[in-house]
Structures are given as C-alpha cells and as structure tokens.
Design goal:
heterodimer; A: 157 residues; mainly alpha; Helix Hairpins; B: 546 residues; two-stranded antiparallel sheet; 2 strands; globular
C-alpha cells in the first residue's frame, strides 16, 4: 500500500513537472494542480493510512481500540486543498486576462519587462482607465438587445 | 497564556474586513487604516519591551495545549521583526496616501495592505510548521492581488510568473511538511526541536532531506542564489509606495524562516549540511545580485537586484553558524538579526526615495532623469543617507551590520566568503554612485516633468532615514538586543521551555552530566555567561570601529 502511494505521488510530481514546463497557461495551471495533489497524497500517507484502516472515531464507552489513522493529516490536507483551490482559481482568471491583453496563451511569446511599451511603466503615476469601469460603460452605452422575450419597458412606459 | 499575542494578526485582518465596506469613501478608509496600523505598532513596541523584560510569551490557540494545538510564540527575534513590519508598514502606508490612484483604492488597495501586514506578522509569531505554511499563503495571496492593483498588461503578465513560482514553492512546502510529519510525528516547532535531538541514522537523514525541500521553499521566498530570477522582474511592477514594504519585508520573511527553522528547530544529526549549503549560496547570491544591479539602467531594477545581493549578507551570517565555537555562532546570529533590521529600514527607504524621483521626473530610466539636486535638494539628502547606509559607510546602520558580520567571518576563518562580501560592498557603493550621478547631477529634462506634488511624500521617507541614522549612531543598545535575541535562537532551551513547559528540553540534563566543555554553553546556568561574553566582544568591536 505504501509503495503504491509512493509511486502515485512520484507520478503526480513527474507529470506536474512536465506540465509546468509546457508553453501553455492552462497546462501550467493543471501542472500546479497535479503538484498540490501529489503533496496532499504524500501527507495522507504520512498519517499511517496505509497501515491502519480504522477511522479515528471513539464511540461512547469504547474501551477496545484497534489501530486508528492519525486524524491530523486529513485536517491539514483540507486546509491545503482550499488554499490551492483559491490560488488555482486566481491563476486561471489571470491567465484569461493575459490572453485577452496579449492575444497568446504561450508564456514564451510574452514580452519581457524591459522590452515593453514605455507608457505602461508609468501607469501608477496617472490614473489608469480601469477595465471594469470601461466594460460597464460600454455595456451601458451599447444598445440593449432584448433577449429575455419579455416586453421592454422604456422611459415612456 | 497571553491572549493578546493574537492582536498583530487579528487586528489587521479585521481592519481589512471592515475597510471593504467603505471602498467608496477614500478619506474614511485612509483614516481607519492609519489608526489601525498605529495601534498595532504601539502594541508591538510594548510587546518588544515586555518580552525583553519577562522572557518568551506564548499563546495556545483555542486552549489546546502546545504539542497538539497551534501555538503562537513571541520571543525577542519575533518581537523585533513585528516592530519592523508594523513600523515600515505604517510608513509605507502613509506614503501611499500620495501615490495610490482612485481606481486602485476602489479595488481594495488598503484592505489588501492590511491582509499583507497581518500575514507577515502571523509568519513571525507562529510556532507551528503547518501554520507557517498557512501564514505564507495569506501573505502571498494578498501580495498577488497588490501586485496586480491597476491590472495593466505588464502587471498581469509578471504576476502570473510570480504566482507560478510561488505556487510550486507552496506545493514543495506541503510535501516537506508531510515528510517531516511522517518521520518526527509532530509539527509543533518546539516539539520538533525536542524530537530531532534524539534522531540518528536513516530517520535523521530523512529529516535532512525534508529540510532541504524547505530550504528550496525559503530560498524562493527570500531570493537566494539559484532561485532569485523572479525577483527583479516582478518587483518593478508593484505600485509605488507598497514596493517599499514589499522590498523591505517579504524577502526577509524568508530569511527569518531560515533562521528560525534551521537553527532553532532542526537539531538532528547531520543537520549542519543546510548551514554549509547556505554559506556557499550566500557568496553567489551577494556577488551575482550586485553584478546584476551594475548592468541595469532602470532605478527600480537596480534597487531590486540589490535586494538579492543584500539577502546574500544575511545568508552569510546564517552560514557562519556552522562554526563550533558557540560564541562565534551567537555573534553571527546577532549580526544577521541586526543586518536584517538595517536592511528592512534602508531598502524600504531607498525604494521610497526612488518613488519620489520617479514622481518628479516622470520616468524610471536613469538616463532620462537628472538634475534633481537643484530642484529637490531635500530628496537628494534623503537618498544620500540611505545610499551611504546600504553601502556600509559609517555612522549609519549598514556599517555596524556589515562590520559585525565581517568581523565574525574573520574570527571564524571564513576568508573566501568574507572577501566576496567586501568586494560586493564596493560594487554596491558603485551602484549607489551611479544612481546619484544620473538622478541628482546632470542636466534636467524638465519638459517631461509632471506637476505633481511630492513634498508630503518626503515626511514618511525622512522617518526611515532618521531611523537608520539613529540606529547607526547609537548602535550599542540595538546590538545588545540582537545578541540577546540570538541567544534565544541559538539555544532552543528557552524556546522549548516556554512552549512545552519546564524540563521538556532534553539536552540540559546531558550537559549537566557531561560537566563543562563547549557543549555546556547550552546549560541554563552557563547561558547568561556566554551571552555576557558575546555582548562584550561585540561591544569591543563596535567601540574600535567608532
């Protein structure tokens, strides 16, 4: 059992490394997901899951105990999963935004810091046009298409 | 049990929560931010005095006792770092009142700043390895968001790279925690210290292997030699003002973790390997960092490369702790702590001055700046002090820090790395002279300048300049404090006793039966004596220097 878990962890880490080295945003994010899964499996194995099969619950009045699994690693993994989930969501959002801005999902085709357009460097000095405000203004300006099928209410009633 | 220890973590997080409700009221937001930050600053200053007087304070979260529950520990080192975080954080926050844009502020700039400070404080206070991971994530996630504040093309792109490398680091951190838990059976730092003293053979080798994974993680965070490449590309895009806090604090969290985890916590047989690796890495970090800075022509990138080179000095200090003489180890740790404090203040200060120069000239490129000496002599004065301090010219803090570290290196016989440190110091001076020549001397390109006010920004920067001067001129009490903190770090006895209770530290009994030799410095009765000797030696060194 432990050998099997070790093999799976090794495969996950190897696959994750391969994916992270691919020139594609989505693959990189997936590779990070494999990494965090590998690390979590390693933690599960460290809790003695392979040797003790009983859940760590004690019934009222129980005096006989068999080998229990350590309850701490699942607890730790829960936290780690939530964190990697949040970071993964953030990364997907950013990779989509980078794709929108640069028109590519290949990190090798992105410009370096010093070969970039000069005006971008100063964006912190002057108020920048904000994407969200821009979008909401465009939405407000655009003629509304009635997709709901309901009668449209205009200002005149 | 000191419930108040949670204040530096909870108050910033709570402030952040409240501030999100007032995102449309900039003045109210700033007032509340400042009030909260000043309040926590006052608390941590009191905590430093209290810990210095009464010893290490601990707090078991939720009332769960130490080896099982999560514990927060404030020793002198943690209290010093808390004071620096809140001090530099407050100063950087006041500075951002002039630089933050309306849009940035609407999109939760100040709440994120508070989360960042809360996360940094958390990582200094925690006494549990997994909790350290969680605090790192809190800190990192808010730093991702701050880095993107404004969401320009450049920021998004560089932040993506920054997140990817840090996410790899986080996975390695979790894996290392798994290995340590499997071998030692605990994640409480004090308990790991107790358990690892008895480890030998294969199990010790396993812990060493896991701690090398931790070394990779902390090296990514602190920007040490082969893993520094993300730093000079991602720091220049951080919004002006906050970059002072980023540059000063975030890499030093990595250095603090190295100091805490590898010196206080891991005591297993063969654990010295890490320290030896760090000594080798430190030379490369220093030299490559400063060489990278020399070929840059952008003020932020020069300063970012210098962060790396300065981290090299701190790693060198940690590397010296591999010496057999406990006196030298003590002085090395004291020197490192003093250097970390110096660097946090001065590095933030340099970035803040750089921000003022950028604001006046409207560019980050050295060759397009120039002539600031006539226009803004005050800014030139601020830069002069900070630049001389980081290059190690007396009487500023850089001199006291470098002098202590290099003195320790000579007495420990580490001549090669000390030679590298001295060469690096010359190159640092060259870089600072380059900035001085191109930014403050020369002809002014006034046509590009922007009519933005900068005078208010000088006030928070001046606070940091005053701090580096004061700590440099009156270095003695601060070096004394650092060497007292170093005793706590080097000898886990106090730390373990404070967390796990009297008699938990096994080495004391052994040393008593062994009677006095070099090991006996670990003994309770011996340690004040060793401390006094260390203080006396450093005092002599400093007196000669002055």
């Amino acid at each position: 059992m432990e050998l099997m878990m070790a093999t799976i962890v090794a495969l996950l880490f190897a696959g994750g490394t391969y994916m992270i080295l691919r020139p594609n945003f989505i693959r990189i994010v997936m590779g990070l997901g494999l990494y965090s899964n590998g690390a979590n499996l390693l933690l599960i194995t460290s809790g003695g899951y392979a040797r003790a099969n009983d859940a760590p619950f004690v019934a009222e009045g129980q005096t006989q105990f068999s080998a229990m699994m350590d309850p701490l690693p699942p607890d730790i993994i829960l936290t780690a999963i939530v964190i990697s989930f949040a970071v993964g969501a953030l990364l997907l959002t950013i990779s989509y935004r980078v794709y929108l801005d640069h028109g590519t999902d290949n990190p090798e085709q992105l410009p370096n810091l010093d070969e970039d357009e000069g005006d971008q460097k100063l964006q912190h000095l002057t108020p920048v046009p904000n994407v969200f405000e821009e979008l909401s203004r465009q939405c407000a300006d655009a003629p509304r298409e009635n997709v709901s099928g309901l009668p449209v209410r205009t200002a005149h009633g | 049990m000191n419930t108040h220890l949670i204040i530096p973590i909870l108050v910033p997080l709570f402030t952040a929560m409240v501030l999100t409700f007032f995102s449309r009221q900039p003045v109210l937001q700033r007032a509340m931010s400042l009030a909260s930050a000043l309040g926590v600053l006052g608390y941590v200053l009191w905590l430093l005095f209290y810990v210095d007087q009464h010893g290490i304070q601990t707090m078991a979260v939720g009332g769960w006792e130490a080896p099982w529950g999560i514990v927060f520990v404030a020793d002198r080192l943690a209290a010093i770092m808390l004071c620096l975080t809140m001090g530099v954080g407050t100063v950087a926050m006041i500075y951002t009142f002039w630089t933050v844009t309306r849009v940035q502020q609407q999109y939760f700039f100040y709440p994120l700043m508070h989360v960042l400070m809360g996360g940094v404080n958390w990582s200094f206070l925690t006494g549990d390895l997994f909790n350290l991971f969680v605090s790192y994530e809190v800190m990192l996630i808010s730093s991702y968001a701050m880095m993107m504040a404004g969401a320009s093309r450049q920021q998004l792109r560089q932040t993506f790279k920054y997140i990817v490398i840090n996410a790899i680091g986080s996975s390695l951190f979790v894996a290392a925690i798994g290995l340590i838990y499997a071998t030692v059976g605990t994640l409480n730092m004090a308990d790991i210290a107790v358990q690892t003293t008895q480890l030998t053979g294969q199990r010790a080798a396993m812990v060493t292997a896991a701690s090398i994974m931790l070394l990779v993680v902390f090296s990514i965070k602190s920007g040490a030699f082969p893993l520094f490449f993300w730093l000079p590309d991602s720091y220049p895009i951080v919004p002006s003002g906050v970059i002072g806090f980023f540059a000063g604090m975030l890499t030093k969290v990595g250095v603090y973790s190295l100091l805490r985890v590898f010196i206080t916590v891991f005591q297993q047989e063969g654990g010295e390997l890490i320290v030896q690796i760090l000594l080798v890495l430190s030379g490369f970090t220093m030299l490559l960092g400063v060489l990278g800075a020399m070929c840059q022509w952008d003020i932020r990138r020069i300063l970012s490369w210098h962060i790396i080179s300065q981290v090299g000095y701190m790693l060198m200090g940690i590397g010296f702790t591999g010496h057999v003489d406990p006196l030298i180890v003590n002085m090395a740790i004291a020197g490192t702590i003093f250097y970390v404090a110096h660097n946090i203040i001065v590095k933030s200060c340099l970035f803040l001055v750089g921000g003022i120069a950028e604001r006046i000239t409207g560019t980050q490129e050295l060759k397009k700046m120039g002539g600031l000496l006539n226009v803004a002599p005050g800014v030139a004065g601020l830069f002069l002090v900070a630049g001389l301090s980081i290059a190690g010219i007396p009487p500023f803090t850089g001199f006291a820090g470098k002098f202590t570290l290099i003195g320790v290196g000579f007495s420990g016989g580490y001549f090669l790395v000390v030679a590298v440190a001295i060469i690096t110091s010359f190159f640092t001076l060259y870089s600072m002279m380059k900035i001085w020549t191109y930014v403050f001397w020369g002809k002014a390109h006034e046509s590009q300048w922007q009519p933005l006010s900068y005078r208010g920004m000088m006030a928070p920067t001046a606070v940091l300049v005053l701090a580096t001067t004061a700590f440099g001129v009156f270095a003695q009490p601060f070096i004394d404090l650092a060497s007292k903190a170093a005793t706590d770090v080097r000898d886990p006895n106090n730390y373990v006793t404070a967390v796990l209770g009297q008699g938990a530290w096994p080495v004391v009994a052994e040393a008593k039966s062994d009677e006095a030799d070099a090991v006996a410095a670990d003994d309770v009765e011996q340690s004040p004596d060793a401390e006094r000797r260390a203080v006396a030696v450093v005092a002599n060194l400093t007196r000669e220097a002055h």
